[in-house]
User: Which sequence fits this backbone?
């Protein structure tokens, strides 16, 4: 067995698709309407349809965010300052670029569904 990828639930698949394609600059590998797979294995699934598939019911509350402060989506980039300059105006920042205790520079923000996203520079070991 091997782990493939996390699949965050999203309320508006069109908005989420556009955010990860345009703001995060991820390339779409497959788009099945309610499921989008990006290069590198990151994927999104429209929440109401996946709730019905997995649990055979939907919570039906379109106003509640799927982001629950219990998941962090992590991305890396070689140019953290350029990524911050491009992404920061488009998102709700959690914090700007900061050096972590382990020496890595990162910034964090929330995506359109409230999921926490971290962008960091590659950690040199």
Assistant:
């Amino acid at each position: 067995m091997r782990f493939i990828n996390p699949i965050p639930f999203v309320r508006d698949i069109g908005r989420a698709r556009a955010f990860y394609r345009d703001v995060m600059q991820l390339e779409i590998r497959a788009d099945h309407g309610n499921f989008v797979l990006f290069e590198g294995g990151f994927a999104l699934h429209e929440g109401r349809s996946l709730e019905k598939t997995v649990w055979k019911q939907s919570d039906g509350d379109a106003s509640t965010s799927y982001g629950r402060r219990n998941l962090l989506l992590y991305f890396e980039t070689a140019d953290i300052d350029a990524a911050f300059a491009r992404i920061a105006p488009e998102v709700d920042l959690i914090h700007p670029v900061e050096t972590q205790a382990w020496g890595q520079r990162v910034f964090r923000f929330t995506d359109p569904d409230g999921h926490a996203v971290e962008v960091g520079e590659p950690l040199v070991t």
